[in-house]
Amino acid sequence: NNLHIEVLKTVPSTNESVKKLALNGAAEGIVILSEEQTAGRGRKSRQFFSPSGTGIYMSILLRPKISAQDSFLLTTSAAVAVSMAIESVAHKDTQIKWVNDVFMDGKKVCGILTEAALSVESGWLDYAVLGIGINVSLPSHGFPEEITDIATSVFSDDKNSGDLRNRLAAEVLNNFMVFYASLTDRLFLPEYKKRIFFLGKAVTVLKENKQCQATAIDIDDNCRLKVRYENGEEEYLSSGEVSIKVN
Ligand code: BTN
C-alpha cells in the first residue's frame, strides 16, 4: 500500500480537498498535508483551530472494502496510530477519550474526522476521507479563549519543531497503514482499550437529553462502550447516540 503525500502551505480544509479528489476518481493512498487550514472542520460542524506551522493537518484518501457499519474502525485505529506516534516520538503519555479524541494531561491534543460515502452497488464504502488534526506545538498567541481550557499541544513551547512535526506525521501514517492492512482483524483494539482512561470509573451518560449515572465497564469489538447503571442494568452505547462526561 503506497502513499502519495502532497504538502501544501495553506488550504481551506484538507478533508475538503481530498474529498474532491475522491469524487474525481483518485486512487486510494493520496495524502494532503497542510501547514495551515483556513477552514479546518471538526465533528458536529465545529471548526478545527488550524494555525500555521504548529500542527499537523492531514487527510488520507482510502477506498476500504468495508461496510458503512465498520467505518468506525478507520477512526478508532487512527486514534491509536496517533497515540502511539506521540508516545514514541515525543515520549509523552496519551489517553483516548471514547470514541476518538486523543488526550494528553486531560486535554485534547488531536481530533479525527472521517467523512465517507457508501457505494450502493457494492455495499462497501466508495471512499473514506480520514482527516487527522494534531496540535504539535503551542501557537504563538496560545489557543483561542474558547478552547484554552480543553486543548493542549504535544510540546508545551512554541519553538520551531518542524523536524519533530515531520517525524510525528510520518509515524502516524506508518502506524495507521499497519492497522489498515488488516483493519477488520482489529489489531489495534488492545492498544485502544488500554488508553481509554475512564474504564472502571463513574461517568455521566447523556442520552436523549437525559442524564444517568453509570460505571464505564468495557469496550466491545465494535468499540461500543459497555456501562452499568446504578440499578444494575447494563447497556452497550454507540458513540453517535450518547456523550460521556467523566465525573
Ligand atoms: C474533531 O475533533 O472534531 C475532528 C477534527 C478533525 C481535524 C482534521 S485537521 C485535517 C482534516 N481537515 C479538516 O478540515 N479536518 C480534519
UniProtKB/TrEMBL annotation:
It comes from the Bacteria. Biotin binds at residues 13-15, 37, 41-43, 108. The gene is birA. Residues 1-180 form the BPL/LPL catalytic domain. Its EC number is 6.3.4.15. This is Bifunctional ligase/repressor BirA. The chain holds residues 80 to 326 of 327 of the full protein. The keyword NAD does not apply. It is an enzyme of class 6 (ligase). Acts both as a biotin--[acetyl-CoA-carboxylase] ligase and a repressor. Keywords: ATP-binding, Biotin, DNA-binding, Ligase, Nucleotide-binding, Repressor, Transcription, Transcription regulation. Belongs to the biotin--protein ligase family. GO terms for cellular component: cytoplasm. GO terms for biological process: protein lipoylation; regulation of DNA-templated transcription. It catalyses: biotin + L-lysyl-[protein] + ATP = N(6)-biotinyl-L-lysyl-[protein] + AMP + diphosphate + H(+). GO terms for molecular function: ATP binding; biotin--[biotin carboxyl-carrier protein] ligase activity; DNA binding; transferase activity.
